Amino acid sequence: MNACDNAQQDKPATTTTDKNDKKIEGQSSEKRESEFTLDENTVFQQVPLEVLSNVASYDQPRIQFLWIPPHEKNRRQLTLWSIKLDGSDLRQVATAEELYGDYRHSVVVSSKPVRSPNNRYIVYTFISDKKRIVLLDLATRARKVIDEGVASAHFTWYPDSQRVMINRAYETKVFSLKTESLSIVEHQKNAGLYLINEGKHFFAIKKGKYIVYDLLFNEVKSGSFDYLPQSLLHLNSVSEDGRYLAFGYDLLDLETKQHLTTLSDSPILGIHENWIFISRNGFQRININTQKVEQVFTAPAGGSGRKGVTLYNL
After folding, report:
1. To the nearest whole number, what is the mean pLDDT of the chain?
2. How far apart (Å, rounded) are the C-alpha atoms in residues 78 and 237?
3. Of all helices (H) and strands (E), which one includes residue 24?
4. Model-level pTM?
């Protein structure tokens, strides 16, 4: 990254990013899709960029994942991709240059990229010479660092897509896109917070106990469960209603107090309604109630990675 790029990208921008969304999406994103061309000898070199103004791409939930596709010469260079929940409409979300800038040749992604509810923004962490938390705007393709010195974090977006919660070991911050500033959330008794129930409640865990708060941190309900991890940072995923917790290969049902250990022989990547998602020969989904298995996406030979998997456009 040159001096100009470093000055512009590695410091919070000074303008509000939520203005004229539709105008920007119609111009900047469409231009990027038409400009994205690769060697036509390989089918994956013709995959278009995901474009926010393409309504057809958002008629169902999507899976976002880091991946090294078959054609990529740099086998250590993860880029960001997405598909629909039915396995169709493979798109490249962001290139290595867009994700990492000039650090793309020596970078480690330490936290999964998480999409905002309006699909426009992605927040993620990578390590190069420094540890950086980065916000990528898919409408303008602009990248900016919003915090530093963090190796691992979990991100949760507020429903308005204008605030993102950054959870890390016993510290939670909120970044506001409108004010372009970070604020600390005081909740020292809990190891991380998830927003659930359409952003109406916080979900927290500490020492085998789970707690649901309202947004003013008044306790709504709580309970204990022998198999709860020590921290939310150890979880793979939490269902939107807070009922299911994915922890490694296991699924915890807080409503029935079931510890489901036989659903999957692969780490659980995400939860949507009554389905869990795993990475096996691509992506599969398993029905929690019937244990029915469906292949969502079959990965082609030669590709590798499929890390940092999240669901969005829910």
Report:
1. 77
2. 22
3. helix 21-24
4. 0.78
